Amino acid sequence: MAVDYFMHEKIWFDKYKYDDAERRYYEQMNGPLGSSSHQQENGASTILRDIARARENIQKSLAGSASTTSSAPAGDQNELLSRISHLEVENQNLRSVVADLQMAIFKLESRLNALEKSSTSHQPSPVPPTQKVEPFSVPSKKVELPSASPAKKAEPAAAEEDDDDDIDLFGSDDEEEDQEAAKVREERLRQYAEKKAKKPGLIAKSSILLDVKPWDDETDMAKMEECVRSVQMDGLVWGASKLVPVGYGIKKLQIQCVVEDDKVGTDILEEEITKFEDYVQSVDIAAFNKI
User: Fold this and answer.
1) Which residues does residue 99 pair with via DSSP β-bridges, in sequence order?
2) pLDDT tens by residue, 7-43
3) Which residues contact 256 (CB under 8 A, 6 or more apart)?
4) Span 191-196, mean pLDDT?
5) In Å, how far from its chain's centre is CA 75?
6) Is 206 helix (H, G, I), strand (E, B) or coil?
7) Alpha-carbon 49 to chain mean position
8) Cα distances (Å, whole numbers) of residue 284 to 51, 94, 204, 227, 254
9) Among 50, 132, 146, 189, which is 20 to 30 Å from 160 by CA?
């Protein structure tokens, strides 16, 4: 029963053969497993050697930095001493230059003082700026003669009178000009009003479309149109017309007319058309437009 069961199941009985063949294939390609382990040991040993070398280099660098730090203060002190001595020499030189400049300025000041003294001894003493010198000691106040004062007083009075006369004359001229301008303005307004009165005004007109209906289909439509057009009024003008079918063989007359709104009314027009009772049954306004 077991053999029959395994016969129907899919079992790989020869798998170990394939595994051995695969192992031999990879050994031929990469060498035996022992060689790979040997290579791993060699790699680990090289890593350890590199680590040891790195430690040695770090220790050497630390030892060198300690030696340089111990020797650095002595070098810095020497450099500072040399700089200080150099600055002292420069300070001494600057002091000597400043002393020379002070001596030169002192000499220049002494020369200027001597020149000013010599120039003041040869020139006259200047006049103070606040003092005013008038020739011949003439007083600044003007002396008016008694004889001249009445004449001077009379002259302003005459000038005032002349000014008053001029003002009056100018005022009269202005009034005359204003009157003339008013007359011209009134004349122009009168002429404009006359022209406007003579000009005809706009006449209000309307366009009306009438529907004139007959009694029946036996009505003479030509005679009915003739009767409608016979209505004549002042301000009424008849236009085009046409027959429009209504139904059952009946047609209505549709006629256009233009009327003046002030002279002809729609009520009067309808009454005049409906007087033809033999032909006209009713009149309707189909359209009404202002012109």
Assistant:
1) none
2) 556 667 777 787 888 888 888 877 555 555 555 556 6
3) 207, 208, 209, 210, 238, 239, 240, 241
4) 80
5) 71
6) strand
7) 78
8) 124, 128, 22, 16, 10
9) 146
Q: Could you tell me if 204 and 260 are in contact, meaning their C-beta atoms sit under 8 angstroms apart?
A: yes
| DSSP letters spanning 38-90 | HHHHHHHHHHHHHHHHHHHHHHHHHHHHHHHHHHHHHHHHHHHHHHHHHHHHH
The DSSP secondary-structure symbol of 32 reads -
Q: Whole-structure pTM over 0.70, yes or no?
A: no
- Cβ(213)–Cβ(281) under 8 Å? yes
Closest CA to 272 of 242, 244, 234, 246: 234
Q: Residue 105 carries which side chain, given as an amino acid letter?
A: I
228 C-beta neighbours (distance < 10 Å), count: 22
Question: What pLDDT does residue 7 have?
Answer: 59
Vertex 175: Cα angle to 169 and 178 (nearest 5): 145
Sheet-wide strand order for 205-213: 236-247, 250-260, 205-213, 282-290
Task: Round to whole Å and give the CA distance between 212 and 273.
Answer: 9
Amino acid letter, 139: P
Whether the Cβ atoms of residue 218 and residue 169 lie closer than 8 Å to each other: no
Give the length of the chain: 291
d(CA 197, CA 181): 24
Q: How far apart are CA 33 and CA 26, in angstroms?
A: 10
Is residue 180 within 8 A of residue 225, CB to CB? The reply is no
Q: In sequence order, what DSSP letters do the residues of 95-138 get, joined into one string? A: HHHHHHHHHHHHHHHHHHHHHHHHHHHHSPPPPPTT----GGG-
